[in-house]
Each structure stands twice: as C-alpha cells, then as structure tokens.
C-alpha cells in the first residue's frame, strides 16, 4: 500500500484508515528530512487564511523575488526540527493509488526534557534551555525578506513569557504541541484528531500534561480531545479580535505505564 520508496525510512506506521475504495490514509512517525518540502507545501495550503501567518508574512512585504526565500526558510527550519531529537513529527499521507503518497497533514511536538534525556542522553553543555532557539529573536539578518520581524519578536515574546508564567518550573515537563496542519482538501476527516492523539497517548504514558497555543481554527478539535483553556493571548497589535488560546490537557490517570 506504500506509495513512495523512501517510506521505508520511516520508523513505523501508527495507523491506517480507509477513506474510500481508491484512497488510503496512513499516519506515520516521520523521522527523515525527506518530507520537509512536501510538509511545508501542505502547511502553506493549511495556513493560507490564518491571520497570524498573514501578519508574519504580510502581503505588502511579499514580492515575486522573496516568495521563494520565504518557502526555503520554512523548509530549512523544518529540516532542523526533524533532525532535532527534542522534536517528534507525526505525518499523515494519502495514497490515491497512483504511486505517490502525498503529505496531507502533520503534527510537531517538543517532548518533555526528561523524556529526551532518557532516550538521547543528557547534554552536558545544556544551557538550561531544552530546545535551543532556531533563530535568535535579535538576529533579524537571518530571517527571510518578506517576514515582519517585529511581529515575530512580539509574538514569540508573549508566547514564551506566558509559558513561563503558567508552567513555571514545569515549563519543559510537558508534551508541547508546536505545529499542526491539515491540507484543506482533507480537513474534517479526523486527521488532526488522530495526529494529536498520538502525542496525547505518550503524554499519558509519561504522566505529564500536554500544552499548546491554539489558532481559532483548532480550538474545537483540542477541546474535544480534553484540552482546557488557560488564557487568551492577543498577539497582533492591529487585530484585537484575533487571539491564540493557551490550552492544557492533564494526563489521563488510567493510562498504562
Ligand atoms: C485545525 C485543523 C488542523 C483541523 O484539522 P482536521 O483534520 O480538519 O481536524 P478533524 O477532522 O480532526 O476535526 C475537524 C472537524 O471535523 C469533524 N469531523 C472529523 N471527522 C469527521 C467525520 N468523519 N465526519 C464528519 N465530521 C468529522 C470534527 O468533529 C471536527 O468538527 P468541529 O471542529 O466542529 O468540532 C485544520 O483545520 C488546519 O490545518 N487549519 C489551519 C492551520 C491551523 O490552524 N492549525 C492549528 C495550529 S494550533
């Protein structure tokens, strides 16, 4: 049923759903950078109407010349995450039977520091920051032309401050969902729910909470999966109605160890 040869690079399948007689959905643990470009294409389609994405990459800064660097910036950032043991990506692909399995969704988690250290050893040079920033918020030069760096800094500052405020010493002791996207063509088929559930099962097993900042589009999905709202964040100065919802799901007590 696998549509592409390099599927064998993936660690293991975690589920299969039949969508119709001709098409199959696979949900896999991604452990290779080979899918970075297709994942970014999928993400671009999913976030096409997202207000924060528009603010980070505003139309007035976008030109034909910088369209490609923006995409390359995203692909490189994703490759770094896929190679970073603190990150776990789960991927959904769709096989329409024409020899190519297309990426139709993904979820990116940062695992609790303790879990990462147990599996990959302790980093003696650790600065205390579990996941090193991929791009310093001061280092505007490495951001692509077309990005509004002020919006990026402002948003990250609010998100990081809130995480410290709400989680305190447990800041790195959560399964943190940092990224979720499903291709619009495939939305409403429980793909996101399946991708998120993969991480929630691990959080339950580790007896730690799951934490995230939700776009307006995803709040109902997370609520159905047991997340509760902690706080609303207004990250866009010129858009008072848009907010991110900070959500937490406590571990399921009956999860097996
Ligand atoms: C938010 C997002 C990830 C949801 O993906 P999805 O795969 O459509 O999510 P699901 O299918 O699991 O659930 C979506 C809805 O479909 C419904 N649904 C799922 N399977 C269904 C089925 N078989 N039949 C009918 N409805 C179904 C769910 O009940 C849910 O409804 P609700 O939102 O009214 O509660 C997707 O819309 C997206 O990528 N949005 C843009 C990017 C974004 O905001 N990402 C979140 C970052 S925090």
- Mean of residue pLDDT values: 83
- Which range best describes the helical content: under 10%, 10-25%, 25-40%, 40-55%, 55-70% or over 70%? 25-40%
What is the N-to-C order of secondary-structure elements (H for helix, E for strand)?
EEHHHEEHHEHEHEE
Strand content: 15-25%
Tell me the number of strands.
8
- CATH class wording: Alpha Beta
CATH architecture classification: 3-Layer(aba) Sandwich
Radius of gyration: 18 Å
* Beginning-to-end CA distance, first to last residue: 33 Å
Biggest beta sheet attributes: 8 strands, mixed
Given helix and strand content, the structural type is alpha+beta
The ligands bound in this entry are: coenzyme A
Question: Which terms would index this structure?
Answer:
257 residues, Aminopeptidase, binds coenzyme A, alpha+beta
What does this structure look like?
The chain has 257 residues and is an alpha+beta fold. The protein has seven helices and eight strands, in the order ββαααββααβαβαββ. It has helices at 36-46, 51-56, 64-83, 113-120, 149-167, 191-206, 219-224; strands at residues 13-18, 24-30, 87-95, 101-110, 175-182, 210-214, 228-233, 244-249. An eight-stranded mixed beta sheet has the order 1-2-3-4-5-6-8-7, sandwiched between helices. A hairpin with a 5-residue loop joins strand 1 and strand 2. Helix 1 crosses helix 3. Residues 1-13 and 125-129 have low confidence and may be disordered.
């Amino acid at each position: 049923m696998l549509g592409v040869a390099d599927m064998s690079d993936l660690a293991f399948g975690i589920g299969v759903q039949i969508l119709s007689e001709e098409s199959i959905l696979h949900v896999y643990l991604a452990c290779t950078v080979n899918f970075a470009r297709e994942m970014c294409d999928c993400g671009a389609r999913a976030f096409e109407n997202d207000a924060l994405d528009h603010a980070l990459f505003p139309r007035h800064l976008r030109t034909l010349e910088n369209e490609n660097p923006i995409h390359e910036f995203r692909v490189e950032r994703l490759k770094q995450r896929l190679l970073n043991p603190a990150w776990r990506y789960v991927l959904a692909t769709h096989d329409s039977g024409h020899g190519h399995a297309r990426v139709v969704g993904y979820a990116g988690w940062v695992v609790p520091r303790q879990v990462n250290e147990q599996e990959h050893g302790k980093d003696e040079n650790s600065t205390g920051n579990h996941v090193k920033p991929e791009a310093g918020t001061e280092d505007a030069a490495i951001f692509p032309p077309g990005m509004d760096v002020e919006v990026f800094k402002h948003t990250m500052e609010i998100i990081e401050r809130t995480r410290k405020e709400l989680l305190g010493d447990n800041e790195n002791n959560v399964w943190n969902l940092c990224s979720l996207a499903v291709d619009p063509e495939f939305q409403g088929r429980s793909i996101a729910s399946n991708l998120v559930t993969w991480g929630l099962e691990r959080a339950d097993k580790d007896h730690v909470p799951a934490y995230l900042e939700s776009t307006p589009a995803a709040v109902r999905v997370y609520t159905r999966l047991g997340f509760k709202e902690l706080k609303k964040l207004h990250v866009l100065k010129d858009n008072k109605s848009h907010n991110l919802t900070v959500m937490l799901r406590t571990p399921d007590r009956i999860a097996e160890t």
